[in-house]
Structures are given as C-alpha cells and as structure tokens.
Specification:
Elements (H helix, E strand, L loop, with lengths): L13 H11 L7 H19 L5 H12 L7 E2 L6 E2 L1 H14 L4 E2 L6 H14 L4 H21 L14 H4 L2 H10 L4 H13 L7 H5 L3 H22 L15 H4 L22 E2 L9 H14 L6 E7 L16 H5 L2 H10 L16 H7 L2 E3 L7 H9 L6 E7 L4 E6 L12 H12 L5 H12 L18
Parallel strand pairs: 5-6
Antiparallel strand pairs: 1-2, 3-4, 5-7, 7-8
Helix pairs in contact: 1-9, 2-4, 2-5, 2-6, 2-18, 3-4, 4-5, 4-11, 5-6, 5-8, 5-11, 6-8, 8-9, 8-11, 9-11, 13-15, 15-16, 18-19
Length: 472
C-alpha cells in the first residue's frame, strides 16, 4: 500500500483557489485603501531595512548576499547597492528588514520581512511597474495570512513546543515571487508545494537562546520562497494540491488545523488592513509602553535624570527581563521593556544607535532600566494577547513615571499609533520613513527616495528606484 493520495481522494480545492486568486488578482480589483496600505507597508519595510546600516548583523547579511550572489546581477542589495542574484538579494534584504524588529506584525508574524524584499527583487529583475509590485504585495499578504491562520496553535498549546513564525513565513516569499514571475495558476499551485517542502519544523530555539541568528531566519525563508517559485516555473510533475491532501502540511503543524481559513473571505475581507505597523524598533508588545513613555515625558518635560521609578501595569510575561550585568544580544534587548524604555528615554530618536553593541551593557541604560518594574495587576500572557489581537483587541497598558521630587505622571493606552484601529496617516508614514532611512540616506537622496516610494503607483519600472535605496 503506497503513501500517495489519489486525486479522487481529495475533496477540497483550497490550493487551487489560492493559486487562482494569486494569478488573477489585478490592480483594479483592489480597493484604494488596501493599495495605499500596501504602499505604506513598503515604505516602512524599506525604511527600517535602511535604518539597520552599521549594525554587525547587517554587515554580515550583506557579506553573505555578495558571497552567494552567483548568477545574473539582477537585484539590488539595499544599503550597500551591489547587484546580485534575486535569491541573494532577498536573503540579505529580508534579514535586514527584521534586524531592528521595526517592520509589521500580523496575527502570525512579520509578513513584510518576506513579502516586500521578495516582491521588490522580483519586480526589479523582471522590470515590473509599481502597480504590478503593489498587486503582488496585496496578494502575498492575503494568501500568507490565511495559510498561517490555518496552523495557529490552539489555546492550550505548550509554548515550549515553539511557534512557527519563521516556518510558515516561507509563503510570504512564494506568493509575490510567483505572481511577479508570471506563473500560471497551476504553477503557483506547485510553488505552494515547494513552499511546504521548505517549511521547517517549528522550534523554540530563538526564545531559548535569544540569539540574533533569529533575524537570519527571515532571510532563509525569503530565499526559499523565491526558489520555490523558480522551481515551479522550471516545471515539475505530480506536485499539486498540498493544502488539500490531509497529510501534506497542516497535519504536521498543529493538532487542531482550522482549514476553513485557507479561503475564508478571500477577496472580500482584506486581511492586510488588520496588520499592525510598529512605531518603534522593539517587540510588538513593547510598542504601547514606549509610546506612553514618549507621551508622558514630552508633555511634562521629564528628563532621564529626573526619573526615580517607572511602573508598567500590567506587566507582560516574557517581556520584563532585566540583568544588572546587561544584555547578551540585540534580540534580547528588543524583547525587554526595561531596556527599551531606557533606550528611548536616553535617546528619543529611534535607530541603530539604540542597539550598538556597547549600549547592551551601557551603565546609563542599565541604571535607568533598573528603575522599570511591573505593576500589581495580573500579568498579560502572550498567547492570550495574540488571541485578543486576532479579535481586534489590544492589551491596555498603564505607565506611571515617578520623579525624584515625588511627582507621579500616568497614562493608559490600548491601540498605539500603527495599530489597525489607530493607523498612521500618509504624511506620518513619509516622515517616519525619513527617520528610519536616515542612517543610509541623506539630504536630497533621502527626499527623492521618500517621494518615489510615496508615489509608487506611478513608477513604470521598479528597477529605476532601486539605486536610491543605498548610500552614496
């Protein structure tokens, strides 16, 4: 008895439906507000990638991209400007997109770290227009998010089993690559199969080690995504319907797959409108505390040396880590409310300067971080926070700053700027891009890049913009 499922045993058509949606989606089919959101997410992702210039992980990602850049020089390494193969470009650029932890956050991870670099490299290599690029971005968000939602862990999931953010992330690369490379619906169906092949086992290694290697994982998945599309375009037999065969994908990812999510409200409910954009370079659950610190200190003229105590209530489990000896990695710092609040208070303009290696053990940061503690309320647990986010909610936080003269200043907030219910304006995205990209771009070059991205729908060839995305 063989293991292969016969075609007649498959009773659903999830894979082909997603493939046909991807292949057939047109710019004119997409609501204007969704296209605008795709453009803003592009600005954000490219901006935070350029903002990572000078950090060791960025230098390493670029070096690997150059070392592996065998083949046609068809896509640009952001920051650096070198032209390499598509696969090498997306490995480096997707890694850079996640280094500052400043991109987006969907219910299931950071789709933009795969979607935007892959779509950009494929559009650049194939000389696609801004409208074609934006259409592929929308298709990718809609398909990625639904596949990822199918395999989300159930409520009582053992968190030590890991979470598959950089497992299902591969589909954030498969879709835009397949769309922009002109694959047929049948070929896209097969590309999904290659995506399943490249979907690694879920792991908790990142949270156990807090290693900066986590950022490389986004590069690996983006590279695999574009290779999946390339392999499907080259041609393969008997590789159809991976999401319909019971034993191909979701069976291995979660004990309770929600398979109706594959095509739920496809084409009518635009899930990218429910994705969060980070206002600050930090873990998503630290956005609200930093925003509160920003509001309180700017309104009341509070300086770091004035602060005696900072209380965050409720605290978030897994986000209150502090060691008086300092932090072992950029990633560990990005997941720490004490570090991130101290970094902001000492240097209100965000950027790579928050994460210079010396900052991880900087006495001034550690002295201020030591003043941060959780309040008396029951703590927020991450699993429930994510479930709430999926339902349109967000944890309400209260930050209280006590100054040395005994005065107390408190504010509360739930949906911080960048949350779907409190999204940034077009002008705010442009201004934030200028802050984010400043480590790489200056003066007129920065202004030209901001204008080009803000008017992306008018671009006739993405390759014409790419030279703007690197330093002179």
């Amino acid at each position: 008895m063989g293991f292969r499922v016969n075609a007649q045993d498959i009773t659903t058509n999830y894979t082909q439906t997603l493939a046909e949606f991807t292949a057939s989606l047109k710019y004119e089919d997409i609501p204007p507000e969704v296209l605008e959101r795709a453009k803003h997410f592009t600005m954000q992702t490219i901006g935070v990638s350029l903002g990572a210039k000078g950090l060791p992980m960025t230098d390493k990602a670029i070096a690997i991209g150059k070392a592996c850049g065998v083949g046609e020089p068809e896509a640009t390494l952001w920051v650096d400007g070198s032209k390499v193969s598509m696969t090498s470009a997306v490995f480096a650029n997707s890694t850079m997109a996640d280094i500052l932890d400043w991109e987006d956050c969907s219910w299931t991870g950071h789709p933009s770290a795969g979607v935007i670099p892959v779509a950009w490299a494929a559009a650049e290599a194939h000389h696609k227009s801004g409208k074609e690029f934006l259409t592929a971005v929308v298709a990718a968000y809609e398909v990625y998010q639904r596949i990822a939602m199918v395999v989300q862990p159930p409520r009582d999931w053992d968190i030590m089993k890991g979470w598959g953010l950089t497992s299902w992330q591969v589909f954030a690369g498969v879709v835009p690559a397949a769309k922009l490379m002109g694959l047929s619906a049948e070929q896209i169906n097969q590309a999904f199969g290659f995506g399943v092949l490249c979907c690694p086992i879920q792991s908790n290694l990142h949270h156990i080690t807090m290693s900066d290697a986590y950022h490389f994982e986004h590069g690996f998945r983006a590279k695999d995504g574009i290779l999946a599309a390339m392999a499907a375009k080259a041609g393969v037999d008997n590789y159809m319907d991976c999401f319909d065969d019971t034993y191909s994908f979701d069976y291995h990812m979660t004990p309770e797959p929600q398979r109706d999510w594959y095509t739920r409200d496809l084409g009518t409910r635009w899930l990218m409108m429910e994705v969060l954009i980070k206002h600050w370079p930090a873990n998503m659950w630290l956005q609200t505390p930093i925003e509160l610190a920003h509001n309180i200190t700017t309104k009341n003229g509070i300086r770091p040396e004035d602060i005696a105590d900072i209380e965050l209530d409720p605290p978030t489990v897994g986000r209150m880590y502090f060691s008086p000896e300092g932090f072992n990695s950029l990633t560990q710092a990005q997941f720490s409310a004490p570090f991130m609040l101290a970094a902001y208070l000492l240097e209100p303009t965000p950027g790579p300067g928050w994460f210079d290696r010396a900052k991880l053990t900087d006495p001034k940061i550690l002295e201020l971080a030591a003043k941060v503690h959780g309040g008396p309320s029951d703590p927020h647990y991450l699993g429930l926070c994510f479930k709430g986010f999926q339902n349109g909610e967000f944890p309400t936080k209260k930050l209280t700053i006590t100054t040395r003269d005994g005065r107390q200043y408190s504010e509360s907030m739930d949906c911080h700027p960048g949350h779907p219910r409190n999204m940034l304006t077009h002008r705010e995205f442009i201004e934030r891009f200028k802050v984010q990209a400043a480590p790489t771009l200056r003066g007129e070059r920065l202004e030209r890049a901001a204008r080009a991205l803000a008017e992306l729908e008018a671009c006739g060839d993405i390759a014409a913009i790419s030279p703007l995305l690197c330093g002179e």
